[in-house]
Each structure stands twice: as structure tokens, then as C-alpha cells.
């Protein structure tokens, strides 16, 4: 989702269109936080897409153009994205509990929310590890890679109070490295939809983008966590009346 317009293979004439004058953009500053924030980590303001969109999410802007053209209305787009992140980082505290664990992680979060100073003293490095981002591709997957609620706290929570027409959810690569990838991701994605709707409206529509193909093609059927996450995304979209 963080893949920018500047990185696309679009022709120069496709990078700036007349319809862009009717599209407003807001890029959420990338940040993490251990508790929900009411403001972004850095100042952020709206800009016009026609004035420049090179750093903006390509998926978000191209979808916004289609909406503006089809609906004949001005469109506001908010890009809150960070590549390579786990779904746990985008789940709020109540969403993590709804997803059912892990029990130790939820217990540590409970302690931190109740008394941050005491939790730091009790859990030490174990607490710090909960907010370490996942390692880049190719690094040891056993290194700490959890980021429970930290991106939601810093990048989504400050948006509360705004009204949204819908959400494009494009994430999942990081979670293909987990055991029981389909079952875990399916549960977590359901919890994310429910917990975000609790904040932004019970019928908030979601467009769930399945993971794009990546890597060499297999010559015969094989076990694939990538396929498992894609299937989890398909099932959640199929069962949810406000998702596709």
C-alpha cells in the first residue's frame, strides 16, 4: 500500500490527470506509539493531487481517481501505510483482545495500560520487544517482529472523529511467515474490521485487496502460506456484507 506513484510504470501523461484537481490528499506521518494518540507525530495537512502526488500511495490515488470519475464528486484520500508491517500493528487494543491473544502479549498490554512505569520495571526487554517492527525480508524471521497496536495508536487513532466512505485494506505479506497463517489471519482480519468499525461506523465498507503474486511460480501443487493468507482474505470478504 505504501508503493508510491513515483515508483509506478505509468506514462508521464498518466501521472497527473485533470480529474486530480478534484482530489485532496492527506499523507499520515509514519510513527509508532505505545498508547493511542489524539494527534499525529508530525504536522500533516491536505494538498491537491494535481499539485503533486509522487510520494502518495499509488493504489490509493488510482482508486480515488476511479471514484471521482464515476461518482462525479470531489474525493478526499488518506494514505496511512507502512510497508512490511504485521496486521497486529494495525489492530487497536480492543481488536487484539477480540482476536484472542497471544495471552502473554495481551497481559503485558493490560499491565502497560494500567501503569506504564510498573510495566516497564516488571517486563523490561519483553515489553520493548513488543514494539519492535518486523525484520526486513531476508533477515532471520525468529527475531522480534511484533508491533502490537503501535501503528494503530500513532497513525489511525488520531483520525477518530472523521467520517469515511470506505477503507482499502492492502496488507498481509508479513503475516505469511506465521504458523497456521490462514486461521490466524482470518481471525485477525475479522477483528480489525470490527474494531475499526467500532471507531468509524458500524457499516464502514472495506475493500480487501488480496496479496499480489510474488516470487517464482511452482511447477506443481505445494503448501503455501501466501495462498493461505489470500484464502483468509477471500473468506472474510465473502462473509462480510460490507466488504469485498
Which features does this protein show?
244 residues, 8 helices, two-stranded parallel ribbon, mainly alpha, 5 strands, 3-stranded mixed β-sheet
Task: Explain this structure.
Helix content is 36%, strand content 7%. It is mostly helical. A three-stranded mixed β-sheet has the order 2-1-3, with helices on one face. Strands 4-5 form a two-stranded parallel ribbon. Helix 2 packs antiparallel against helix 7, helix 3 packs across helix 4 (116-123) and helix 7 (181-200) runs parallel beside helix 8 (225-239). The longest helix is centred in the C-terminal third of the chain and has 20 residues, at 181-200. The radius of gyration is 19 Å and the shape is globular. Residues 142-146 have low confidence and may be disordered.
Taking all Cα atoms into account, the compactness measure Rg is: 19 Å
Q: What is the structural class?
A: mainly alpha
- Helicity, in percent? 25-40%
Q: Strand order within the widest sheet?
A: 2-1-3
Count the beta strands. 5
Low-confidence stretches: 142-146
Q: Tell me the β content.
A: 5-15%
The CA-CA distance between the termini, in Å, is 17 Å
Mean pLDDT: 88
Largest sheet: 3 strands, mixed
Count of DSSP-assigned helices: 8
Helix-strand pattern: EEHEHHHHHEHEH
Q: Note the overall shape.
A: globular
Q: Can you lay out the helices and strands and say which pair or pack?
A:
Elements: E1 23-27, E2 47-48, H1 58-71, E3 75-79, H2 93-99, H3 103-114, H4 116-123, H5 125-129, H6 150-156, E4 167-169, H7 181-200, E5 206-208, H8 225-239
Parallel strand pairs: 1-3, 4-5
Antiparallel strand pairs: 1-2
Helix pairs in contact: 2-7, 3-4, 7-8
